[in-house]
Specification:
Number of helices of chain B: 3
Order of helices and strands of chain B: EHEHHEEE
Shape of chain B: globular
Distance between the termini of chain A: 24 Å
Strand content of chain B: 15-25%
Largest sheet of chain B: 5 strands, mixed
Oligomer: heterodimer
Helix content of chain B: 25-40%
Number of strands of chain B: 5
Structural class of chain B: alpha+beta
Distance between the termini of chain B: 33 Å
Largest sheet of chain A: 4 strands, mixed
Helix content of chain A: 25-40%
Structural class of chain A: alpha+beta
Shape of chain A: globular
């Protein structure tokens, strides 16, 4: 079992993260990964140039670690890996990598899904979309909270 | 006492401010006082998803501040 949870201030390379997870998970039968990417348009259609993810000096890294460990304990997985950007992220660039490996596919799919539901609503970031039309703070929607709560 | 704010609360109030708070004042009382002084932050301060934090630990509404506390107000968080 390995759990990796990392806050990245500068650059997130999903291929490198996937490569490391694959190398670690050689003995597992399944690997599921997710990459979140900055959207060029807001939910209301305005153009977005960049996402700004403000973080807390202590609580942010701690929240990533706690979520990753919880997921690793809840599902029958051998490896969990979460890498999350902070700072200014141009639209189109990766924000988060979430991956899980397991002996059989179901646990890895569920672990990756649950990881993202928890990260969306509990990872300690404050997210702002910024573009030519101005700047808007983004918070989880009720649907995001419902997605997390469906796991019980 | 020093109070730090993040996200939309930092925009509406300030990233940090010094406030004269009587010893024993609760987090709930401080929220109300800040909301009356900074109406633009009122809705976020009143949200049950906004949390208070002392010494890098989340504290409840009935937590009473003591001398030397540095309080942080965290508006609703969102990763991913």
């Amino acid at each position: 079992m390995s759990v990796v949870a990392r806050l990245e201030e500068h650059r997130l390379d999903p291929q490198a993260e996937l490569g490391e997870l694959l190398a670690q998970a050689g003995g597992s039968g399944a690997l599921v990964s997710f990459v979140g990417i900055g959207r060029p348009r807001s939910s209301s259609g305005e153009s977005v140039d960049e996402l700004v993810l403000q973080h807390h000096p202590v609580l942010t890294a701690r929240s990533l670690e706690e979520i990753a460990v919880d997921v690793a304990q809840r599902f029958d997985v051998s490896h969990v890996r979460v890498v999350h950007r902070c700072g200014r992220i141009p639209a189109g660039e990766p924000i988060v990598f979430a991956g899980a490996a397991s002996a059989h596919r179901r646990a890895a799919f569920q672990a990756a899904d649950f990881l993202m539901d928890r990260l969306k609503t509990e990872a300690v970031f404050w997210k702002r979309e910024s573009g030519k039309d101005g700047s808007t703070w983004i918070e989880p929607t009720e649907a995001d909270y419902a997605d997390r709560d469906r796991w019980g | 006492m020093k109070i730090l704010f993040y996200g939309r609360l930092a925009d509406a109030i300030a990233p940090a401010l010094e406030m004269q708070a009587p010893a024993g004042c609760s987090v709930a009382e401080l929220r109300q006082r800040l909301a009356s002084e900074y109406p633009d932050a009122g809705e976020t301060l009143a949200s049950r998803r906004s949390r208070a934090c002392v010494g890098d630990s989340i504290v409840g509404e009935d937590y009473r501040v003591v001398a030397g506390d540095e309080l942080e107000f965290l508006p609703p968080v969102s990763g991913g």
